[in-house]
Specification:
seven-stranded parallel β-sheet, 10 helices, 290 residues, single chain, alpha/beta
Length: 290
């Protein structure tokens, strides 16, 4: 029988993951409120509202569950519903069954870290964010760790990729981050997000050890100024405006992905140059050669 994976919140990352798992021979079920977007993907659609107890009770028995929901707005109530409350409801639905999933993967965020002075962080670093998004993500992580179900938390850093091109547009507008103090940024391409999740499922399928927590970020934390300056050169744009107020509120840390690399994962886009070159080419942003 095929390994069956349920992707809860089957949006951009979930669909990319689904395509990879199907190519690996999995049966994939994608759950979301509006399933029209799954047409033609090969992913079996499952209309689901996590606030509906009857729908949760009817969730199918599967081998793997990937919880990759996104809050529909940046508000505390939306984050609470999407992360701790939603995950706890799913855990409760599966904990009471005779057949448990082999593993549940919860997609979290590096927003759980409060470090902002350029510190290096890894899985052992304190995760004590004061912002509601980080606090609620951490609450969801702790719920998974406390569950009797085998679970793994994956903390993604800043996700970019096709359609996630806000930074490119800022550079095209002639804007750039300040040079000092250096404001370290961390990122991961959408395809690597899917790749990491597929990799961890593959490890579990093969009976290899899977940790309870991974920090998933590419191999080169970099000052945001360096990223934007490089991008401006590729786009042949001369920056004319230094971005100030909003960036002062950003965190500045350097994410260490050593545990993920030690597990055998190899990044498709190991740094911002490789990843953003793909995004700019795919999006038609790069100037035509003369």
């Amino acid at each position: 029988m095929k390994t069956t994976t349920l992707i809860l919140g089957c949006g951009d990352i979930g669909q990319q993951l689904g395509r990879e798992l199907i190519a690996a021979g999995h049966r994939v079920i994608g759950a979301r409120r509006n399933v029209a977007a799954l047409k033609g993907t090969g992913i079996e659609p499952l209309a689901l509202d996590l606030g509906d107890p009857a729908a949760l009770a009817a969730l199918p028995d599967v081998d793997y569950v990937v919880y990759v929901l996104s809050a529909d707005r940046f508000e505390e109530s939306a984050y609470r519903a999407a992360y701790p409350d939603g995950l706890k409801a799913v855990l409760a639905a599966y904990e009471g069954r005779e057949r448990h999933p082999e593993r549940l993967l919860f997609v979290s965020s590096t927003s759980v870290y409060a470090q902002k002075e350029g510190e290096q962080v890894d899985e052992a670093s304190p995760a004590e964010s004061a912002g509601f998004s980080g606090v609620l993500m951490r609450e969801a992580e702790q719920a998974l760790h406390a569950s009797p179900l085998p679970g793994t938390v994956v903390r993604f850093s800043g996700i970019y990729g096709p359609g996630r091109d806000r930074l490119i547009h800022q550079v095209l507008e002639g804007r750039i981050a300040p040079t000092a103090p250096p404001m370290y940024s961390n990122r991961i391409h959408r395809d690597d997000c899917a790749g990491v999740l597929a990799h961890l499922i593959g490890l579990s399928e093969a009976g290899k050890p899977v940790e309870e927590l991974y920090l998933a970020s590419d191999c080169e934390p970099a000052p945001l100024f360096d990223v934007m300056r490089w991008m401006a050169r590729q786009l042949k744009v001369e920056p004319t405006e230094v971005i100030q107020a909003p960036l002062r509120k950003r965190a500045s840390k350097r994410c260490d992905n050593a545990r993920l690399l030690a597990s055998g994962y190899r990044f498709r886009y190991p740094d911002f140059r490789a990843g953003y070159t793909q995004v700019m080419k795919a999006g038609g942003f790069l100037p035509e050669p003369v």
